[in-house]
Every structure is written in C-alpha cells, then in structure tokens.
C-alpha cells in the first residue's frame, strides 16, 4: 500500500499524533494533549520491527497505539475514535469482561494485571496505577506489534511491551534490567476498523517476578530520595 493510499485509511489507524491533532474538542484527562516525542525516540532506537506504512502490521499497531492513547488521556469514552464505545469490551487471560466506561475509570494496568501477590488492582486507582508504572519505567513503557496472524474482522496478533527498570516498584529496588512482556491479542473490529472487543493473553506472573527480583529496599536505601517534608506529611495524615 502506498503512502497516498494509507492516508485514505480511517484516522484512528493512522499515526496517533494525527489523532491527537484532530481531537480539538477532546476532554483531556490532564487538561492538555499528551506529548509522544520521547516515546517516538525510544521506539526508533529499540523497536524490533519497522513495519511498512500501510501494511496490515502497521495498521494494527497504529490502531492499538491510538486506543492506548485514548484510554490513558481522553477521559470521556464517548470520544474514543478507536472503539465502538457502547459495544466495546475487553478481557485478559480469559478473565472478566470490562466495558469502555470501566476501562476509562480504572485504567489499563488495573484491568490487565488484576489481583496477585505483588499487585493489588482492587486497591489501586487509575491515577495511582499510572504513577506506579511511570515511576518503575521512567523512560517509558513502549509497545509494538511483532506479527499479525489474521486480518479483519478478527485480528489476531503478537505484541511486545518493554521498559528499563530504573525506578523502584512498590518499594522493590530497580535492577536496571530491560523488562519485557510478550503476548497475543484477538481484536474484533468493524468494517471501518473500530474495535468492538479485544482479548489479551500474556504471563503477568513472570512480569511481576522481574519487578520484585531486586528485593525490598531498606529505609537507608530510600531515605536519600525521600521528600524532605514526607515525615511531616505522614504525621499530618495520622493526626
């Protein structure tokens, strides 16, 4: 497919920056549109695949990246261009299905990770879960499509998520390791390539084992990075 032909594709399967630029009336979760310039730099350096513009792989990758952007930054699911919001549902590893509204309220991390020994999704909010993983991966947590096994209407594909573990994870020391998740997903899409449903399959146990491999940090290890007002704040909260 040529560049001209790819521009004739629906907006939500083009580059997500084009979606952001066109979303002039969007209700942004943090008041301003997201900036993916650093993410683009990381992707250019670290991606395993360089999909041809307009290829099925590039279209699927753009659609999922747009979806991830909209879930993370557009607070109103009715404004998500990448999904059929009133029909959409998502599940992970055969677990419960969640609607667009539930995903928008709880965030992708909480619905993907669920409750386990090292992560309690039921105790985290959208904001707290985002903060945890932004702290853990301060350079970002990029995502790419590795392979596409089938085209629309049921799109099966293999993907990779990765990040450099350079910030603490819930009190566990960073190892500096590149932590990677490889999984598969099946997305059911409309004729114009909006997502109706998506099922994700990946091993989150292995992911969390890597995030806790450095062991718990001691008070002396964390003291130097603690806010000077934290002890006062803790006393204030208890009073």
From TrEMBL:
Q: Which domain of life is it from?
A: Bacteria
Do you know which Gene3D superfamilies this protein is assigned to? 3.10.450.50
Record protein name field: Ester cyclase
